[in-house]
Amino acid sequence: MHTEAAAPPRTLFQKIWDDHKIVEREDLHTLLYVDRHYVYDGSSSRVAFELLAERGLPVRRVDRTFGAADHFVPTLGRTAAEARDAERRFMIEAFDQAVATHGIVGFGLGDPRQGIVHVVGPEQGLTQPGMIVVCGDSHTSTNGALGALAFGIGASEVCHVLATSTIWQRPPREMRITVDGTLGNGVTAKDLILAIIAKIGTAGATGCALEYAGSAVRALSIEGRLTICNMSIEAGARFGHIAPDEKTLGYLAGRPFAPRGADWDAAAAFWRTLPSDSGAVFDREVFIDAAGIAPMVTWGTSPEDASPISGRVPDPADAPDAARRSSIQRALDYMDLVPGTPLTEIAVDRVFIGSCTNGRIEDLREAATFLDGRKVAPSVRAMVSPGSTPVKRQAEAEGLDRTFLRAGFEWRESGCSMCLGVNGDEVAPGERCASTSNRNFVGRQGPGARTHLVSPAMAAAAAVAGHFVDVRQLADRAGARA
Questions:
Q1: In which element (H, E) is residue 175 found?
Q2: How many Å apart are CA 271 and CA 15, to the nearest integer?
Q3: What digits encode the pLDDT tens for the residues 106-138?
Q4: Which of 151, 187, 366, 449 could make an SS bond with 445 (beta carbons 3.0 to 4.6 A apart)?
Q5: The domain that contains 187 carries what CATH number?
Q6: 367 closest CA partner among 381, 355, 380, 354
Q7: Largest CA-CA distance found in the chain, in angstroms, rounded
Q8: C-alpha span between 295 and 455 (Å, rounded)
Q9: Has residue 288 been placed in a domain?
Q10: Mutual orientation of helices 361-371 and 222-230 as an angle, nearest 10°?
Q11: Of 292, 327, 353, which marks where a domain is finished?
Q12: What is the tally of helices (H) and strands (E) in the chain?
C-alpha cells in the first residue's frame, strides 16, 4: 500500500513564508502577500506617497495600512506648529496629508492612540501572529515578538506595497538563538539582547531570519520580547521573531484591532499551530546560559561594544586582530574613554528613557522603581518620553509621572525623541548619555553626542548616581525584580 511521506518539520518562519507565497521565481525571489503595512512621518513613507501620486495609483488595501507620527514630532507639544523648525513641521504635515488623502487610519498628533509606530502596532492589536508586517523602518522587527514576520523596507518597496499589498523577497538563511535558564536579579531583556549582540557581533546574524527560543525567552513578558526583537537588526538580522504562546494570546486578547468572538477562536487555534516543529532545521544555532548574563552597558560606537557593568573599558592592544584593534581605538577616541577604566567610574551628563526599544509601560515601571525616594544627580539632565500616548496616560494613572518628576526627570510627550535626535531632542556635543534606545552610533543622538546603551533600570540608577552603577546592588533595597 502506498503512503505519502510525512511532511518535513518546518520553522515558524517557513510556515508564515509558505502561507504568504504568491509566486516563486527560479532564482527563489518570491512574491509575498503583506498583511499589515505601517507608515510614519519619515522620508521613506513621504517619498513612497510622492511616487504613488506621480503614478496616479491608489493605496490598494487601505484597511491593512496604518500610520503613526513619531520621528519628527515634538515632545514638548502636540501640534506640528510646535515642531522645532519648518523642516520638521513639513514632515509631520506631509504625513497628515498623505493619510488623509488615502483614507488611511493615521495615529497623528492629537490622536489618543499616537505613538512610536513599533509600539503602536502591538499595543493596538494590529500586529498578530502569522502575519507578514512591513514598514519603512529597520526596527519593524520589533513586531516579530508576537510571532509575525516583520521587517523594514526601502522607499521604493514602500510604494510597491502601498500599490499592490505585495513585496518581492528572497528567502534568508535561518538562525536560532536559544537562551535557557533564569535571568538574575536586576537583569532585563535589554541586557539579554545586548549580551547576545556582544557575543555574536553586529554581523553575527547578517541577512538571517532570527528566532529566539529557550526557557529564558519564554519567561519574558511580551514587552520584554518586544525589546529583544527590536534589536535584532543590531545583530545584523533582517527578521527577529519569537513563537506565539498563551502569553502572546493573553497580551492580544481584547486589544482594539484584535479579533473577537468566533473570529478570535479561529485565530487563536491557527496561532497555536505556528511554533517551529520539533526537529526543524536551522542554518545556525547559538546557545546561551541566562545565568551568565549581567547588567550590560555599551562603551563604544556599535551595539556589539558592550560589557557587563562589572567590566572595564577594553584595551585595543588586547584585540584579536588589527581590524578590531583599530575599531576599538576609534571608538574610544570618539567616546573619550581610557582603556582599563571601570565602567562604574564613567560619569554621565544626560539620561534618556524611551524609544521603541524601552518606552513601554513595563520599562517605565522598572525605572520608576529605582527612582522612588531618590533624586537625579545635580550634574545630570534626565528625561522620559513614553513610547505612546496610551503608555503616557497609563503611567500617569499609576502615578509614575510623579515619581519621575519628584526625582528630577523631565516628563515629555510620546515620540522617538532623543533616540535619533531628529525632532530637536538632542544630546549636546561632547555630552555623555545613558540611553535606553537601540543605537550608539557616532552622532546618533546629536553631533558629537556620546551614547551608552543600557536598560531602564541602569539608566535610572545612573541618573541618580551621576555615573554607571551595578543596578543589582540597588535591586534588593528597591524591592525590584527586573
A1: strand 174-180
A2: 11
A3: 999 999 999 999 999 999 999 999 999 999 999
A4: 449
A5: 3.40.1060.10
A6: 354
A7: 82
A8: 8
A9: yes
A10: 100
A11: 292
A12: 17, 19
Q: Is 467 helix (H, G, I), strand (E, B) or coil?
A: strand
Confidence at residue 84, expressed as pLDDT on a 0 to 100 scale: 82
The whole domain housing 474 covers 298-478
Number of domains in the chain: 3
Amino acid at 420: L
Whether 457 and 313 share a structural domain: yes
Place of cell 555630552: 431
Is the sign of the CA dihedral 331, 465, 434, 79 positive or negative?
negative
* Average predicted confidence (pLDDT) for the chain: 96
Among 118, 134, 169, which residue terminates a domain?
Answer: 169
Domain-located, residue 7: no
Q: What is the pTM of this model?
A: 0.96
Is 264 part of any domain? no
Q: How confident is the model at residue 480 (pLDDT cuts 50, 70, 90)?
A: very low
Grid cell, residue 424, equals: 530637536
Query: Using CA atoms, how far apart are residues 136 and 457, in angstroms rounded to an integer?
Result: 30
Q: What is the pLDDT of residues 239-254, one digit of tens each?
A: 999 999 999 999 999 9
Alpha carbons 113 and 132: distance in angstroms, whole number? 22
Which position has the grid cell 524609544? 355
**CA–CA separation, 206 vs 198, rounded Å?**
14
Band of pLDDT at residue 477, cut at 50, 70 and 90: low
Domain at 322, CATH number: 3.30.499.10
Assess whether 59 and 204 both reside in one domain.
no
Report yes or no on 78 lying in a domain: yes
Cell of 129: 501572529
- Residue 337's alpha-carbon distances to 50, 168, 197, 260, 481, in angstroms, are 45, 45, 21, 54, 31
Residue 282 sits in the same domain as residue 350:
no
**pLDDT digits 0-9 by tens, 279-322:** 999 999 999 999 999 999 999 999 999 999 999 999 999 999 99
Mark whether 157 and 188 lie in a shared domain: no
Do 165 and 196 lie in one domain? The reply is: no
CA 433 to centroid of chain Cα atoms: 19
**Could you tell me which residues come within 8 angstroms of residue 170 by beta carbon, excluding any fewer than 6 positions away?**
27, 28, 29, 30
For residue 12, what is its C-alpha cell?
Answer: 515558524
* pLDDT band with cut points at 50, 70 and 90 for residue 481: very low
- Residue 401 pLDDT > 90, yes or no? yes
